[in-house]
From TrEMBL:
<feature type="binding site">
    <location>
        <position position="299"/>
    </location>
    <ligand>
        <name>Zn(2+)</name>
    </ligand>
</feature>
<feature type="binding site">
    <location>
        <position position="294"/>
    </location>
    <ligand>
        <name>Mg(2+)</name>
    </ligand>
</feature>
<feature type="binding site">
    <location>
        <position position="53"/>
    </location>
    <ligand>
        <name>Mg(2+)</name>
    </ligand>
</feature>
<feature type="binding site">
    <location>
        <position position="150"/>
    </location>
    <ligand>
        <name>Mg(2+)</name>
    </ligand>
</feature>
<keyword id="KW-0479">Metal-binding</keyword>
<dbReference type="Pfam" id="PF00245">
    <property type="entry name" value="Alk_phosphatase"/>
</dbReference>
<feature type="binding site">
    <location>
        <position position="341"/>
    </location>
    <ligand>
        <name>Zn(2+)</name>
    </ligand>
</feature>
<dbReference type="GO" id="GO:0004035">
    <property type="term" value="F:alkaline phosphatase activity"/>
</dbReference>
<dbReference type="InterPro" id="IPR017850">
    <property type="entry name" value="Alkaline_phosphatase_core_sf"/>
</dbReference>
<dbReference type="InterPro" id="IPR001952">
    <property type="entry name" value="Alkaline_phosphatase"/>
</dbReference>
<keyword id="KW-0597">Phosphoprotein</keyword>
<dbReference type="GO" id="GO:0046872">
    <property type="term" value="F:metal ion binding"/>
</dbReference>
<comment type="similarity">
    <text>Belongs to the alkaline phosphatase family.</text>
</comment>
<feature type="binding site">
    <location>
        <position position="303"/>
    </location>
    <ligand>
        <name>Zn(2+)</name>
    </ligand>
</feature>
<keyword id="KW-0460">Magnesium</keyword>
<feature type="active site" description="Phosphoserine intermediate">
    <location>
        <position position="99"/>
    </location>
</feature>
<feature type="binding site">
    <location>
        <position position="342"/>
    </location>
    <ligand>
        <name>Zn(2+)</name>
    </ligand>
</feature>
């Protein structure tokens, strides 16, 4: 399909109507879940959707033992409602999803092929939750430790037949879906080749990182469109209310290397701080907001079978969840949902084994003399179900086991009802 055709269809698809249920009614003919009566008359003003990329039940359990202890809970597991999501894509070659297909299922309600960004299996662009929320008058934003144009955030705010089109995805953010807050990594995709930005091209820690955009200087274009551009923690903290673009790394906000070669997780600004700034900015809109939050490092370090860094990333994710939960506790018309797009690594929590690599344990169980280690079955994704936990009005919709497309079926009417 020609690029310009895809672009036009993306813009047109943004405003397509879809026949989903309205808030307060059963979804797709299903019986209303227990507790539905308490939702009647309730309006969800804000939705915070949090993706622990690559996170499934064992990741959460390992993090619980390490960060909270035998009798403790992660913040994400303290939510009153829990369920499960299946993750299968509609792909001709695989039953195991990637992040693009997984996030597209959430954002559109349609299962699609791996590598697709919110297009159907034939490559036709679909309306996306970020665009639908914006069209309904809400503020929108995305926060991630990945590139801001990587698969998961892109699926909520763009359309592409191939997830690799990150420069075109950035262009769509500015021209089509127009999120008010964009915070994360990926400066390379916003600048043309030969135009280094705040982060130098080909740094010693990763010479493969360099500016590579083909859509012109999108940072300058964002400024012209009224965005403040920031690239450091101090600048983010000082940013005034209004549209905000923050790019804090050439690519991801961490460095991943082959197993045993020393992955590094030292973001310029933490996920929790980006979340806090996004919430303070978006919450000024009286019509409410939609915010996507993602911790990408869980997936990337699990791909490297690095349990030490995976647990660190899980801890940082839970800090961001705590920020979101505290906001929702103060603003009772806010729904918070936490899940993962797929499982990565075939992670298992096991007893200590002297043969384990040092980065896989032993780890102490907080507050006890006990230890555990992490074992892996793969460096890729698996087909395991993922937990989903929810807090706030309509959280009860996430009870039970559902396909990942169900996320869209719940959130779409909440975000588009005026």
């Amino acid at each position: 399909m020609p690029t310009r055709t895809v672009r036009w269809l993306a813009a047109a698809g943004l405003l397509m109507a879809t026949p989903f249920a309205v808030a307060g009614e059963a979804v797709r003919g299903q019986a209303a879940p227990d507790g539905e009566a308490q939702n009647r008359g309730t309006k969800v003003r804000n939705v915070i959707f949090i993706n622990g990329d690559g996170m499934a039940a064992a990741h959460r359990e390992a993090a619980r033992l390490y960060h909270a202890g035998l009798d403790g809970q992660l913040v994400m597991d303290s939510f009153p409602v829990s369920g499960q999501l299946t993750t299968s894509p509609d792909d001709p070659e695989s039953a195991i999803t990637d992040s693009a297909a997984g996030a597209s299922a959430w954002a559109t309600g349609v299962a699609t092929y791996n590598g697709a960004i919110s297009v159907d299996p034939d490559g036709n662009p679909l309306p996306v939750l970020g665009g639908r929320a914006k069209a309904a008058g809400k503020a929108t934003g995305l926060v991630t430790t990945a590139q801001v144009t990587d698969a998961s955030p892109a699926a909520f705010f763009a359309n592409a037949v191939d997830r690799a089109a990150q420069d075109d995805i950035a262009r769509q953010y500015l021209e089509v879906t127009k999120p008010d807050v964009i915070l994360g990594g990926g400066e390379d995709w916003w600048l043309p080749a030969g135009t280094p930005g705040a982060y130098p091209d080909r740094p010693a820690e990763d010479p493969g990182e360099y500016s590579r955009g083909t859509e012109g200087n999108l940072i300058d274009r964002a400024r012209a469109d009224g965005y403040q551009y920031v690239s450091t923690a101090a600048q983010l903290d000082a940013a005034r209310p209004g549209k905000l673009l923050g790019l804090f790394a050439n690519e991801e906000m961490f460095q991943q290397r082959a197993e045993g070669q020393g992955d590094v997780y030292q973001p310029v600004v933490s996920l929790a701080d980006m979340t806090r700034k996004a919430l303070s900015t978006l919450s000024t809109d009286r019509d409410g907001f939609f915010l996507l939050i993602e911790e990408e490092a869980v997936d990337e370090f699990a791909h490297r079978n690095n349990a030490t860094r995976t647990l660190q990333a899980m801890g940082e994710l839970d800090k961001a969840v705590a920020v979101a939960k505290a906001f929702a506790a103060r603003h009772r018309d806010t729904l918070v949902v936490v899940t993962g797009d797929h499982e990565t690594g075939g992670l298992a929590v096991e007893d200590v084994d002297d043969a384990s690599p040092a980065e896989d344990g032993p780890f102490g169980v907080k507050g006890t003399p006990f230890q555990f280690r992490i074992d892996w079955t793969t460096t890729d994704h698996t087909g395991q179900d993922v937990p989903v936990t929810a807090y706030g009005p309509f959280a009860d919709r996430f009870t039970g086991k559902h396909p990942n497309t169900y996320v869209h079926d719940v959130l779409e009417p909440l975000l588009t009802r005026r």
